[in-house]
């Protein structure tokens, strides 16, 4: 197994883990109301929402994980385009 194949495999594994983590982070966000979140009971917990600091940290982590996720997808695309298949 070549070095590029190992890097590609590691990036794919990290991508799957980050995809699951990103999904969980997005689902943890508070619903803004009037959308699908209200259909599933999101409107009931509107008053018991998280504090401002917790919501800011959740937003920050979501953006960071999303940027890393996009960077890995771009890296995998570049590997697929420019590195010949072994």
In short:
The protein has 86 residues and is an all-alpha fold. It has three helices and no strands.
Question: Please, could you describe this protein's structure?
Answer:
- The protein contains 3 helices and no strands.
- The protein has 86 residues and is mainly alpha-helical.
- The model has no long low-confidence stretch (mean pLDDT 85).
- 71% of the residues lie in helices and 0% in strands.
- It has one domain (3-82).
- The longest helix has 31 residues, at 52-82.
- Helix 1 runs antiparallel to helix 3.
- It has helices at 3-28, 36-39, 52-82.
- The chain is elongated.
- Belongs to the SecG family.
- This is Protein-export membrane protein SecG.
- InterPro entries: SecG.
Strand content: under 5%
Mean pLDDT: 85
Radius of gyration: 18 Å
How many domains make up the coordinates? 1
What characteristic shape results from the CA principal axes?
elongated
Q: Sketch the topology as an H/E string, one letter per element.
A: HHH
Distance between the termini: 9 Å
Multimeric state of these chains? single chain
Number of strands: 0
Q: By helix and strand content, what is the structural category?
A: mainly alpha
Function: Involved in protein export. Participates in an early event of protein translocation.
Membrane topology: Multi-pass membrane protein
Subcellular location: Cell membrane; Membrane
GO molecular function: protein-transporting ATPase activity
Topology at a glance:
Elements: H1 3-28, H2 36-39, H3 52-82
Helix pairs in contact: 1-3
Organism: Bifidobacterium choerinum
Transmembrane segments: 6-27, 61-83
GO molecular function: protein-transporting ATPase activity
């Amino acid at each position: 197994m070549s070095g590029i194949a190992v890097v590609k495999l590691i990036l794919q594994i990290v991508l799957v883990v980050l995809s699951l983590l990103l999904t969980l982070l997005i689902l943890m966000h508070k619903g803004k109301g009037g959308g699908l979140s209200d259909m599933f009971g999101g409107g009931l917990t509107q008053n018991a929402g998280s504090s401002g600091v917790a919501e800011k940290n959740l937003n920050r982590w979501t953006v960071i994980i999303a940027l890393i996720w996009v960077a890995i997808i771009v890296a995998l695309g570049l590997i697929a385009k420019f590195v010949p298949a072994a």
